[in-house]
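Changelog-adjacent note: as of this version, every example in the card shows the full chain rather than a window. The one below runs 254 residues end to end.
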Amino acid sequence: MYDLLKTLAGELLLPLPVALGLGGLGLLLAWWGRRRSGASLAGAGLALLVLSSWAPVADRLLAPLEARYPALETLPEDEALAGVVVLGGGWAWQAPWTVTGQLTESSAIRLMEGVRLWRQQPSLPLVVSGGSFSPEAQPVARGYARAARELGVAPDRLRVLDFPADTGREARAVREALGQGARTVLVTSASHMPRAMQHFRRVGLEPLAAPTHYLAERSRTDSLEYWVPSATQLHKTERAIHERLGQLAVALEH
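Full-length structure tokens:
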């Protein structure tokens, strides 16, 4: 039940559903004769949608999350590392494409960064993680493993954790695979990194952040696209809110 509530909150508290809800409620109030209240609610919904789709707002919300941990250019040579861990994302396993095309943008970039870092110390295991939320879907960890092998990672260097379906379960699975207190290189999207670090530290691991897949502050402030609301900017706002809600959920779990 908790997982269901967490999923519903993560979907319904995003700007687009909230804006549509305000707009719909405003229309109902107007239909019931309360035109001023209805117009105010509908206007609030529209304003929320416009601001959420505007780069100055989206970047202001997302950039602090992405900047929490610096990019990891090279692996430290003076630390005993237990492995490079790539956290799960999504993939269209049923699509008739090559495996790199089946991986979502975030998954492909995470894996690419994980392989880049692993090549610096190829004696380490490359741990690819990510289960599925439904029995008929194939876990993304299997897609990661296929792509990693095609990118030159030796099969005996791969550890495939294809059962954990969220970040908290991934942290526990990595602890079981690499050991309590393991110093792990943690690869995930920059906006997701603060929450992932929380999970990994809570289960007794010592993660070294290796963020990638940056979304904020990519548009030039003197360009037209920076000032015109767009779905791209709305996605960035959604990512920021989703991660803030995720951090709240972690705090409530403990």
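Structural remarks: The first helix runs from residue 2 to 12.
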